[in-house]
Amino acid sequence: QVRLVESGGGLVQAGGSLRLSCVASGRLFNLDAMGWHRRAPGKQRELVAQITTSGRTNYRDSVKDRFTISRNSAKNTVYLQMNRLKPEDTAVYYCAAKDLDSRAYDYWGQGTQVTVSS
User: Fold this and answer.
1) Arithmetic mean of pLDDT, 79-104
2) b vs e for 26-48, b when ≥16 Cβ sit within 10 Å of the residue's Cβ?
3) Spacing of C-alpha 15 from chain mean position
4) Which residue, among 69, 37, 38, 66, has the nearest Cα to 56 in the 3D structure?
5) Bridging pattern class, strands 31-39 and 91-99
6) Phi and psi for 40 in degrees, rounded to 5?
7) What DSSP line would sit under 23-42, residue for residue?
8) Which one of 7, 32, 67, 91 is CB 3.0 to 4.6 Å from 63, fit for a cystine?
9) Residue 29 has what pLDDT?
10) 69: number of CA atoms within 13 Å, CB side?
11) For residue 76, what is the DSSP state?
């Protein structure tokens, strides 16, 4: 089992920045990727960014050039640096992890609220 704990959400004005952190613990040896997802009110959950164990990253188009996903393997922590935030970035952000033999994310954190005011 893998446990994920997020932190770093909050209220920020449009144009501001926030950094989310996700600390992973448990059976980490079989993980293939970690990612940040979000769910805005009335919308489906969507993948924002992910990073594989080899360091490959990908982002959804709406956050490219504004968000950066990174990791500190020594601390078992993944970060999401969010710059030039927009009101449409308002959502609950979830950290998730995927095993090597999985096609979908297997483990989820509890989520952290990000609110961007206009």
Assistant:
1) 96
2) eeeeebebbbbbbeeeeeeeeeb
3) 19
4) 69
5) antiparallel
6) -90, 155
7) EEEES-TTEEEEEEEEE-TT
8) 67
9) 87
10) 24
11) T
